[in-house]
């Protein structure tokens, strides 16, 4: 069976700046592919290519075994790739259910008599959010009253409801505390268990390792490797992310200075 997404030696440059260089990995249905790296590692560039914001210069991007080159985020979304960005595109004063449907609201009637179908919207959003195991008090409450973790979870439920095959989460736990991060990771795992291919972008290996099936480690636009979970421990993943050899050299240097 073909991977949902296959990234094959993809490269991207902005003028003379090389943002990505021959990066490869796969995203399978019912699995989580974690993309790890520090700031400037190339994570955002890779996500923008997968989400249709930018196009790759070299290499191949395949969706369901077919070569693709998305012209826009809408095209990627129409092909089943939903991206939940770190700065969630929500309207804080608008209700949870209106944000759930933002741009795709259910309507009744036709022509000039067409109007928003509030009852269907509320009930559909409530059911979709509850199906993900998210316990919200009231879908009429402003989305701005939700915690950061709850907002992320509503965005995940929205992507699942609208038929995403691949769910990309860009640093979903970056601004969250330990408990809220755990909540988001639990719902991410639920999306995986429903058969979606999930791409988790993070700089935190402790968040990635419990839910991940595959780990792509980036540094300065290049890949340090794409590892199956069975082939790498959390300690080694953390060491790879931290630039193990550089840290060891620094530690040796500091030991010499202090001695």
From TrEMBL:
It comes from the Bacteria. Coiled coil: none annotated. GO terms for molecular function: ATP binding; ATP hydrolysis activity. The keyword Nucleotide-binding applies. Residues 5-245 form the ABC transporter domain. PROSITE patterns: ABC_TRANSPORTER_1, ABC_TRANSPORTER_2. Keywords: ATP-binding, Nucleotide-binding. SUPFAM superfamilies: P-loop containing nucleoside triphosphate hydrolases. CDD domains: ABC_Carb_Monos_I. The keyword Nucleotide-binding applies. PANTHER family: CARBOHYDRATE TRANSPORT ATP-BINDING PROTEIN MG119-RELATED, SUGAR ABC TRANSPORTER ATP-BINDING PROTEIN. This is Sugar ABC transporter ATP-binding protein. It comes from Actinophytocola xinjiangensis. The lineage of its organism: Bacteria, Bacillati, Actinomycetota, Actinomycetes, Pseudonocardiales.
């Amino acid at each position: 069976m073909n991977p949902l997404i296959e990234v094959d030696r993809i490269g991207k440059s902005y003028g003379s700046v090389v943002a990505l260089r021959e990066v490869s990995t796969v995203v399978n249905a019912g699995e989580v592919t974690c993309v790890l790296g520090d700031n400037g590692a190339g994570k955002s560039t890779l996500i923008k290519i997968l989400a249709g914001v930018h196009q790759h210069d070299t290499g191949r991007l395949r969706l369901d075994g077919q070569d693709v080159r998305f012209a826009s985020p809408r095209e990627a979304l129409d092909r089943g790739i939903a991206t939940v960005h770190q700065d969630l595109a929500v309207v804080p004063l608008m209700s949870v259910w209106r944000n759930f449907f933002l741009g795709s609201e259910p309507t009744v009637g036709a022509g000039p008599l067409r109007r928003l179908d509030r009852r269907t919207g509320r009930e559909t959003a409530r059911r979709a959010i509850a199906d993900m195991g998210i316990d919200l008090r009231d879908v009429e409450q402003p989305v701005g009253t939700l915690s950061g973790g709850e907002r992320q979870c509503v965005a995940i439920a929205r992507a699942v409801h609208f038929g995403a095959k691949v769910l990309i989460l860009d640093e979903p736990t970056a601004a969250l505390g330990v408990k809220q991060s755990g909540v988001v990771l639990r719902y991410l795992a639920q999306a995986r268990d429903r058969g979606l291919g999930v791409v988790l972008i993070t700089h935190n290996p402790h968040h990635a390792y419990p839910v991940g099936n595959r780990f792509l480690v980036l540094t300065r636009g290049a890949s340090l490797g794409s590892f199956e979970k069975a082939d790498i421990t959390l300690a080694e993943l953390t060491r790879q992310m931290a630039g193990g050899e550089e840290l060891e050299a620094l530690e040796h240097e500091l030991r010499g200075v202090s001695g």
